[in-house]
Specification:
The protein is α/β, with parallel strands linked by helices. The chain has three domains: 185 residues, Rossmann fold; 186 residues, Rossmann fold; 102 residues, GMP Synthetase, Chain A, domain 3 (2-Layer Sandwich), CATH 3.30.300.10. The chain is built from 14 helices and 18 strands. A nine-stranded mixed sheet has the order 2-1-3-4-9-8-7-5-6, with helices on both faces. A five-stranded parallel sheet has the order 12-11-10-13-14, with helices on both faces. β10, α6 and β11 form a beta-alpha-beta unit. The two termini are 42 Å apart. The protein binds xanthosine-5'-monophosphate.
């Protein structure tokens, strides 16, 4: 049993970030829909509640709201952005629309006698993104921060332990934002901070042992961070009762299949590698639409896995590398599907198992990495950059052929090698090559060429939900470009992707 803080989700874009920041402060928290009933909230006995950001205005039709009973529970509440306006509105204050939005980095003055800002500087930059503002405070509340345009940048009702801030403390652009959340958790909610990965590792190993007993466990290992950490955890818990099946779909980066095999074959687990490249290419023949590629790969993956699992016979448990963002995203319902991530929600139909084990279900990605370190997993597995389940299939625009896969593998390997040589591999969080379907005219020696354009993508990001393009120095790009056109056949032009996410996504498909 941990101390719990509930992040009540009103649909803002930074909701997961708020939860991650709370956990960084060593307090366990869960994201729950604003539709959660007051009874359920009470039953969870949270030490505090945080209202997230949301739509533009509390006055819009369909704007999410909550019963004002929540303010009578005696549980401390912090409202952020829309959450702050909603708190003001529901407790009798007035929210109005400003003529001009306040957006971006904003100089803010704080009243440091407020518990929220205790021990922090009186002035600092905060990240604002709002048009509506609190024009009249609810009774019992006082303003404890303001900006040039916004008289109530923060408000509090100390005796009822209700707090609201108009800006976003969870984003990095806000000075001391995490410290403000920490103040809420420790000064207001009186948390002690009992959430840490070493505690978690011990508890999770014990829980898996208790659940699995002498049973057999089956795991689909991809070599990515999540499934590798899962394998480490399970091997500590149940040793060779675990069988890992690694389906190599032939769409991995160059040599990656062998690397995954090498990393796991000496462990005290049963490791099976299936080379299914031809089978996947066959299914993908003639397909160029990204979502269909994803679907085909997801389904085929399950079929191959099933075929292999049948050879093993009955297992008791199927292990899944589900992590917390998957849980939140598949439960959210309201959010638009931008891309279907195939590893979410697909369970094999014909594998005989009694139950699933998902010991990473409550963890964010950075916590999964910390857990990996805690369990003694090799650095290169813990810090591996994310790689999409469908692999190079969604980095080859249009139809996939064996030849194109090889071209892309070779070009991508050069890109990665040069980034590592330049010492940039930890600074750029994800980087890869994309084989476009565009061909253009070039000249090689005395010959005209008509070959593919290769795109390079490198991003810096903390959460992969927003990203900036990495500022790779020109001389590094120059070397990469010259090596690729010289060493890889069929490429005569290289471009670098300079878009941020949003409006782009990280992958091209
Ligand atoms: P996007 O392209 O949506 O990518 O900005 C965000 C992050 O997710 C990864 N990604 C995927 N991962 N299956 C996965 O397992 C997928 O289908 C998939 N599509 C994108 C992407 O590499 C980036 O890290």
């Amino acid at each position: 049993m941990h101390e719990l803080v509930i992040v009540l989700d009103f649909g803002g874009q930074y909701n997961q970030l708020i939860a991650r920041r709370v956990r960084e402060c060593n307090v366990y928290c869960e994201v729950k829909s604003y539709k959660t009933s007051i009874e359920e909230i009470k039953a969870m006995e949270p030490k505090g509640i945080i209202f997230t950001g949301g739509p533009n205005s509390v006055y819009l039709e369909d704007s999410p709201s909550i019963s004002s009973e929540i303010f009578e529970l005696g549980i401390p509440i912090l409202g952020i952005c829309y959450g702050c306006q909603l708190m003001a509105y529901l407790t009798g204050g007035q929210v109005s629309s400003a003529e001009k939005s306040e957006y971006g980095k904003t100089e803010t003055e704080f009243n440091t006698t407020s518990l929220l800002f205790k021990g922090l500087p009186q002035k600092g930059v905060t990240w604002m993104s709002h048009t509506d503002y609190i024009s009249s405070l609810p009774q019992g509340f006082t303003s404890v921060a303001h900006t040039a345009d916004c008289p109530v940048a923060a408000m509090e009702n100390n005796s009822r332990r209700l707090y609201g801030i108009q800006f976003h403390p969870e984003v990095m652009h806000t000075d001391n934002g995490t410290a403000m959340l920490r103040n809420f958790l420790y000064e207001v909610c009186k948390c002690r901070g009992d959430w840490s990965m070493s505690n978690y590792a011990k508890t999770a190993i014990e829980q898996v042992k208790a659940k699995v007993g002498k049973g057999k466990v089956l795991l689909a290992l991809s070599g990515g961070v999540d499934s590798s950490v899962l394998a480490a955890l399970l091997s500590k818990a149940v040793g060779n009762q675990l069988t890992c099946i690694f389906v190599d779909h032939g769409l991995m980066r160059k040599n990656e299949g062998d690397e995954v095999e090498a990393a796991f074959k000496d462990w005290d687990v049963n490791f099976v590698r299936v080379n299914a490249g031809e089978r996947f290419l066959g299914k993908l023949k003639g397909v160029s639409e990204p979502e269909r590629k994803r679907k085909i790969i997801g389904e085929e993956f399950i079929r191959v896995f099933e075929d292999e699992a049948k050879k093993i016979g009955t297992v008791d448990f199927l292990a899944q590398g589900t992590i917390y963002p998957d849980v939140i995203e598949s439960g959210a319902g309201d959010a638009a599907v931008i891309k279907s991530h195939h590893n979410v929600g697909g369970l094999p139909d014909y594998v005989d198992f009694k139950d699933i084990v998902e010991p990473l279900r409550l963890l964010f990605k950075d916590e999964v990495r910390q857990l990996g370190i805690e369990l003694g997993l090799a650095d290169y597995l813990v810090w591996r950059q994310p790689f999409p389940g469908p692999g190079l299939a969604i980095r080859i625009i249009g139809e996939i052929t064996k030849e194109k896969v090889e071209i892309l593998q070779d070009a991508d390997a050069i890109f990665r090698e040069e980034i590592a040589l330049a010492g940039l591999d930890r600074d750029i969080h994800q980087y890869f090559a994309v084989l476009t379907s565009m061909r253009s005219v070039g000249v090689m020696g005395d010959f005209r060429t008509y070959d593919y354009t290769l795109a390079l993508r490198g991003v810096t990001t903390t959460d992969f939900m927003t990203a900036d393009f990495a500022r790779i120095p020109y001389d590094v790009l120059a070397k990469i470009s010259s090596r690729i056109v010289n060493e890889v056949k069929s490429i005569n032009r290289i471009v670098y992707d300079i878009t941020t996410k949003p409006p782009s996504t990280i992958e091209w498909e």
